[in-house]
Amino acid sequence: MISKRLTKREEDVMKILWEAGKGFVKDLLKQHPEPKPHYNTFSTIIRGLEEKGYVAHNSYGNSHEYYPAVSKEVYRKLFIKNVVSDYFESSYKNVVSFFVNEDKLNVDDLKELIELIEKKKQD
């Protein structure tokens, strides 16, 4: 399983690739918001993502059509796991407490979470 973290630029490229499903560098670059990186920079990022195991490609002569080798869901789980481990002492309770203290979760949100947990236990 992949474990290397992505930089912000790499995450931005992965978001484009997840949205597109697959594509050639020139087509994927068109989907990048302004300011767009140079073609060679974008291509280098994609090749780096391939080296890390996040991207794969199909070859058509000298052209490469890239596609995600890691789903957005798999990356999301890895990302959250790393954040919880690195910043919240591996405690999801600490994560929830953080959001409560930041006024990002209210009582109704917490009740919904409790209902979700109880429902999950029943399944």
Automatic annotation (TrEMBL):
Keywords on record: DNA-binding, Transcription, Transcription regulation
Q: Which InterPro entries match?
A: BlaI_family, WH-like_DNA-bd_sf, WH_DNA-bd_sf
Q: Which family does it belong to?
A: Belongs to the BlaI transcriptional regulatory family.
Transcription found in the keyword field? yes
What name does UniProt use for this protein? BlaI/MecI/CopY family transcriptional regulator
Pfam families, per the entry: Penicillinase_R (PF03965)
Superkingdom in the source lineage: Bacteria
